[in-house]
Amino acid sequence: MFTKKQVGLIAVAVASMAAAGLAFAGTDTVDLTVQASVDKACVVGTPTTMNFGSLALLNASAGKVVTTGNADATGKFYTACTNGSTGVTYTFVGGESALFKMNDGGSNKITYTLFSDSSRSTGITRATAAASSAFSGFAADGADHELSVYGRVDLASNVAKPVGSYADTVTITVTYD
């Protein structure tokens, strides 16, 4: 049997050990901040070829040169802008002066016009930015979009062009705020 004094000392020792054990065990918390940013960006993908085909510069049924009419063609390019990008514009620059012109590798040229709409009423001026709203189906929403560019050759303006293959390269640049 233990004396009261011994029981008291044992109680104090047990309480001290329990308290000491609690002092060494415990928890602490901290918050980890996680963040990212999405930058404004736009990209333009590889376009399709706008092919006017063989231009019919002679009117076989009338037996003379063409005096009216157009040759039309469509090309497509692909673009995407991060959601929320603003001020998106496209600039089209061809290899020749102020007008779009295909050449035969020499001095012979065929002029053509580009449009942003299928009715060919909204012209694209060479080296002048065209607002993204001019292209049906475009939105800066983070998705891929296929946009069409419509071309036209005025046949009567090109009847005296010599036989040959004509080509031009148009550089499409996307700009955004």
Summarize the structure.
With 177 residues, the protein is mainly β. It has 1 helix and 11 strands.
Can you give a write-up of this model?
- The chain has one domain: Sandwich (Immunoglobulin-like), CATH 2.60.40.
- The protein contains 1 helix and 11 strands.
- It has one helix at residues 4-24; strands at 42-44, 58-59, 64-65, 70-81, 89-93, 100-103, 109-115, 123-124, 130-131, 145-154, 171-175.
- Strands 1, 4, 6, 7, 8 and 10 form a 6-stranded antiparallel sheet that branches.
- The model has no long low-confidence stretch (mean pLDDT 85).
Mean pLDDT: 85
- What is the name of the CATH superfamily? Fimbrial-type adhesion domain
Structural class by secondary-structure content: mainly beta
Q: Helicity level, as a percent range?
A: 10-25%
Strand percentage, roughly? 25-35%
Q: How many strand units?
A: 11
CATH topology-level name: Immunoglobulin-like
Summarize the helix and strand pattern as letters.
Answer: HEEEEEEEEEEE
**Tally the helices: what do you get?**
1
Tag the structure with descriptive keywords.
mainly beta, Immunoglobulin-like, three-stranded antiparallel beta sheet, 1 helix, 31% strand, rod-shaped
Strand and helix map with partners:
Elements (H helix, E strand, L loop, with lengths): L3 H21 L17 E3 L13 E2 L4 E2 L4 E12 L7 E5 L6 E4 L5 E7 L7 E2 L5 E2 L13 E10 L16 E5 L2
Antiparallel strand pairs: 1-4, 2-3, 4-10, 5-9, 5-11, 6-7, 7-8, 7-10
